[in-house]
Design brief:
By secondary structure, the chain is of the alpha/beta class. It has 16 helices and 21 strands. Bound molecules: zinc ion (ZN).
């Protein structure tokens, strides 16, 4: 009997599908297996957004996949890298609209780094006796009993082509069962996410009506390291700040002028040292003031299940900074991080000079209540209070004659932080669906993750509450070589998405 027919019969025979019961792991496995050929085909399509024709091929392929399942689709023009919009045509009267966001583009690849012939030729691997990964025939994906530990290796195997495929497979399940999603379903596939989604604000603004929704579900990134189902309610933003401290007009001989002309590298170091204390807390006045955590927030943050001793071991540090009582709490505050410092040269290139300037590059991780402008203003005040006169670019003769300490402080690119309240109805909806489909215990709720995603514009323009529901394994090597998708997670992802599709929001 053909696998697909068997699948349809199997699904129709499962009365559990009629109600809001989760589909069985066996049914999810069948759906996964029915989708693997398409998944592998899609992974063979290069998808670096630097090359628009590649993106167009991916979008065309996906458009056909959504259409074949009964979605109406539209390519949203974007300078040769159209984003894909898809909508399920039917919805119950009064049903709320959920917009699922994913991306089809991927990070660049360096072929020779990969332990397989090409990152564009997906391979199936299993762990060998020595702990390494061995290529096995891809037939393994179609075995009657599917080994959840198998992995598919290819660029974007997890980030972010797998979640798109899981969604399509979940719809295959609904269709086979003659069921409809409980909510109106829209899908937006970004094509420049890995480039920071520079065009998303424009595209979403131009198609605001088309994309209108009551909730936005972002399916990207890995689950919490505990591998429990994960819901992320927000993310910090990131703001770049550059500080230049000026010294003499040009580099000067350190023998002739050492002890006489102040060194800007030393001044920069002293200045940065005033910005944080020995425990890593930012000492700039007001930096943390706007963050308010309730007792309930603190409880949730303490319950994340992070294995902090393991995290510290991995990082190679004995003691963590003391910004919060635990990792999750630390991430609720804005941070001030030195990305790099430079003055003249080191090593073989070092020469006997007092440098003419010293530069530090910072990233400030922002929170919804402490946006980039606010934090930048505090840093500026702090520097001025230490006797610096701030100038826009290299100082003039008059500046040099008038002030001892001169510096330039510049705010660069800045993404905003966004956060959905933990108690928002969208959170309760997703939590219930994930709880019901979880095979790994209680879902983890992350109040706000530390990293930034380029979806702030999306959330801002659409004005809908959003959640990130990541589905892929944490050790997927996304953004680097040997990216992979664990098959057990793929199957669980189909169950989770089916759960979301079938529960009314
Ligand atoms: Zn991604």
């Amino acid at each position: 009997m053909p696998a697909t027919l068997w699948l349809c019969l199997a699904l129709l025979a499962v009365p559990a599908l009629a109600a809001a019961q989760p589909i069985s792991p066996e049914a999810a496995q069948q759906l996964a297996q029915a989708s693997f050929r398409e998944y592998l085909e899609r992974l063979a399509l290069p998808n670096d957004a630097i090359n628009p024709p590649d993106i167009q091929r991916n979008v065309d392929f996906l458009e056909r996949a959504f259409k074949a399942r009964g979605f109406t689709t539209r390519q949203l023009e974007n300078q040769g890298k159209p984003m894909l919009f898809a909508e399920w045509p039917a919805a119950a009267a009064g049903a709320k609209t959920v917009l699922y966001y994913m991306h089809v583009d991927g990070q660049p690849v360096v072929d020779r780094e990969w332990s397989q012939p090409s990152p564009w030729r997906p391979v199936v691997k299993q762990r060998g006796a020595g702990g390494g990964w061995d290529i096995v025939p891809s037939d393994a994906l179609f075995a009657p009993v599917l080994d959840p530990e198998l992995r598919v290796f290819a660029r974007s195997a997890s980030d972010d082509k797998a979640p798109i495929m899981m969604l399509l497979a979940a719809f295959d399940g609904l269709r086979a069962a003659g069921a409809e999603p409980a909510n109106r379903v829209k899908v937006l596939i970004d094509t420049e996410e890995e480039k920071g989604s520079p065009s998303i604000r424009g595209v979403v603004t131009r198609h605001k009506d088309l994309l209108r929704c009551d909730a936005l579900i972002i399916q990207d990134g890995p689950r919490h390291p505990s591998e429990r189902p994960t819901i992320v309610f927000g993310n910090r933003g990131a703001a770049r700040v550059t500080l230049v401290v000026y010294g003499p007009r040009q580099p000067l001989h350190s023998g002739h002028f050492g002890n006489y002309v102040p060194n800007p590298a030393v001044r920069l170091a002293r200045l940065i040292a005033t910005m944080k204390d020995d425990q890593g807390r930012v000492t700039i006045a007001g930096y943390y003031d706007r963050v308010r955590l309730t007792a309930a927030d603190r409880k949730l943050l303490a319950e994340s299940g992070d294995d902090e001793p393991a995290i510290r071991r991995r990082a190679g540090i004995k003691t963590a900074e003391r910004v919060g009582g635990n990792l999750q709490e630390a991430l609720q505050y804005p941070s001030l991080n030195v990305l790099g410092m430079a003055a003249a040269s080191v090593g073989d290139k070092a020469s006997n000079v007092i440098p003419h300037q010293a530069i530090a590059e910072f990233d400030l991780r922002t929170t919804p209540e402490s946006p980039p402008d606010y934090l930048f203003g505090l840093v500026q005040k702090h520097i001025e209070a230490r006797g610096y006169h701030l100038v826009n670019g290299p100082p003039s003769d008059q500046d040099r004659a008038s002030y001892d300490k001169l510096a330039t402080l510049t705010l660069g690119t800045a993404g905003r932080a966004v956060r959905t309240p933990i108690e928002a109805p969208v959170g309760a909806w997703a939590l219930a669906a994930l709880r019901q489909t979880s095979l790994r215990g209680e879902p983890v709720r992350i109040r706000m993750m530390g990293g930034s995603v380029p979806t702030d514009s999306l959330v801002e323009v659409l004005g809908a509450p959003f959640l990130i529901v990541p589905l892929v394994n944490g050790d997927n090597n996304q953004h680097t070589f040997d990216e992979n998708m664990r098959i057990g997670h793929y199957v669980e992802g189909i169950r989770a998405i089916t759960g979301l599709l079938r529960s009314p929001y």
